[in-house]
Amino acid sequence: MYIEVSGAGLAEVDGLYIPSTAPPAQSESGTLSGPGTWNGKPAWDRADGKAARSPAISYSNSYKSWRISRLDGHLAYELTCEDALPPTDRPWNIYKMGTVPAPTVTLHHCDPRLPCPEPNIVFILGGPGAGKGTMCELADIQLGWTHLSTGDLLRAELKAGGPTTVLIKQYIDAGTLVPDEIVVGLLKDAIEKTIRRTGNLNFLIDGFPRSFSNMEAWQTVFGDDGELPKMIYFECPLEVLIQRILGRAQHSGRSDDNVESMKQRFETFTVETLPIVEHFRSKGKCVDIDTSQDRQTVFALLRAQLADQTDGKRLSRPFSEEAEILLGLRPYPRKS
Prior knowledge:
Number of strands: 17
Order of helices and strands: EEEEEEEEEEEEEHEHHHEHEHHEHHH
Strand content: 15-25%
Helix content: 25-40%
Largest sheet: 5 strands, parallel
Number of helices: 10
Structural class: alpha/beta
């Protein structure tokens, strides 16, 4: 793993840190450390090699804390804890030779100086109410596949005030669709950020591509020289979809969870999305799953399709409480 330190009051601390190559040495607690470790935990050197102390980021057994050094070797920032890796979710403390503010620490699972590793992507399509969101969420919880939804990404971008927020808001306020290139750009950013921050390469993209224009934008952003991603199509009769939408309407709060909206959405899906499903079928890249069956059966079928690229420990783990709720094996907790 690699570490990026940013926003420190002491600017010389900021930068990229790489796994330490310091030779074995005895630490202050008397522990003999090996290459890449210090006191039995990972350790890092500055990528530019300027720091006098090696490792420049390491764990102290004596003080039970993670430490970041200045260029001259004096310690600048610390965080008392026994975490296996330098924490990224809480503020660091200013040590004797540091200055405010404390830095932000980011962990990367691959070298940020190199191109991002190729993701393994599966598109999930199906009519409204076919169970895409539920099954993708289950695959995220149980199998470790990252679930991405274009709608969620657009809402998150608006909330976060990202670089395209103003442009997205202009389209939404005007009642027009956000351009495909912007949507696919958000997908690409989310995929690369997830890979670098978590090391996870497996992604389910929920409800995409809905049209050939979506696919053209995908090829523009990701390139069209690679292999076409696999698609899993959730097939479900209209009558079942309507029953599900009406049942969901009782607690969803969605304005489009009614019969008329449902029929309109299904017509749009039939005209715009089914042709892209047929295109993937013609290329031998589409697998159909009948989602009119019970949730446990559907998830078992999805799991089987993802098994060859899922960690074995994930495949054998029992259902979590959250997964059991989504599968209908236990009731939703009552709101207090």
